[in-house]
Structure formats: C-alpha cells, structure tokens
Design goal:
Blueprint (H helix, E strand, L loop, with lengths): L2 H20 L4 H17 L6 H22 L3 H11 L5 H7 L1
C-alpha cells in the first residue's frame, strides 16, 4: 500500500480513537484511553513488518469499534473498558498484583 495513503489511514484512525475516547462517560477511563492510545501508536510508529502493521491496524479498528459501542452504552463494551481502566483486567492488573 502506498506510504502516504497508509499514513493518512493511520492518522485518521488515531484521531478517531482519541475523539471517541473523549466522549466516554468516566473521567478516569478517558485519561486511561487517551494515554493508552498515544502509547500504543508511539510504540509501533517505526514498525516496518507489513503483516505486523496490518495486525496492529486491525487491533486499532477493533478498539475503535468497541469504543463506539461503549459510547452508546453497550454493557459488554463498557464493562471491558472499565475493567481495563481500573486494573481488573489486562496489563494494569498484572502490575498491581506484583
């Protein structure tokens, strides 16, 4: 895929995730989502492996869709985001249990 188109696609996805994050009802979750999004995009910005890039884009699209569902109060999506935010699930849980 053309690098310019890929870059535009990634930036658009990044902005959309941040925009949806700002609409979430829980203030702590808003901060968590914005920080996590920034960290993940920065972490993979120099990635060159095409299959890994495609996989990470798919993950980001999945996260955006989950956020959109959560913002219309889909219980499963809201629960998942709150569990990640408050360390009931995911990497934060593992940090807290150390």
């Amino acid at each position: 895929m053309d690098k310019v188109i890929r870059r535009q696609q990634i930036l658009s996805l990044y902005r959309n995730i941040l925009k949806e994050s700002s609409k979430f009802f829980d203030d702590n979750a808003k901060i968590f989502l914005k920080n996590r999004t920034r960290k993940r995009f920065k972490e993979y910005k120099d990635e060159t492996d095409e299959t890994r890039i495609v996989n990470k884009l798919a993950d980001a699209h999945q996260a955006l869709n989950r956020l959109k569902r959560a913002n219309v109060f889909d219980v499963k999506s809201v629960t998942r985001i709150l569990e990640l935010t408050y360390g009931r699930r995911g990497p934060m849980r593992h940090q807290l249990l150390k």
